[in-house]
Amino acid sequence: MTMRNISLTTSLFALSLSLITSAAWASPGQGSGDNGLTEADVDRTISLEAGDMWFDPEELELAAGEVVKFEITNTGNLEHEFVIGSKEAQEEHRQMMLNMANGGGHDMSNMAHGEGHDMSNMSNGDGHDMASMDMAGVTIAPGETGTLLWSVPDNVNELEYACNIPGHYESGMYGNFSL
Question: Which residues does the chain have with pLDDT short of 70?
Answer without folding.
Answer: 1-34, 104-133
